[in-house]
Amino acid sequence: MVLKESTPNVQKFTEEELTTLRTIQSKSQNATLKFGQLYLNKIRLEEQETILKSHVKGLEQEEAEIAKQLSDKYGKGSIDIETGEFTPTE
Fold first, then answer.
1. What residue ranges in 1-90 does DSSP mark as E strands?
2. pTM for this structure?
3. Which of 5, 49, 56, 77 is a Cys-bridge partner for 88, taking CB atoms 3.0 to 4.6 Å apart?
4. How many Å is the maximal CA-CA distance in the chain?
């Protein structure tokens, strides 16, 4: 003969309670999804920032090279890019 252990009384939640729990679970999953999307966007933004920093650094080097070339050709002075005029400094 097998003795059965007594089982506690099983109770059921009301539909309203289940709806509330499901809503909270759904909101939690949605928040988790949004955090994941935000993290991916952050990674992409950081990658774009790295690329842009590299581009700006390249432009600065190019500007320095052109400035040196012009300085070697015309001497020290200032350039008005709008008029194309060079004013030497002494």
1. 77-80, 85-88
2. 0.61
3. 77
4. 114
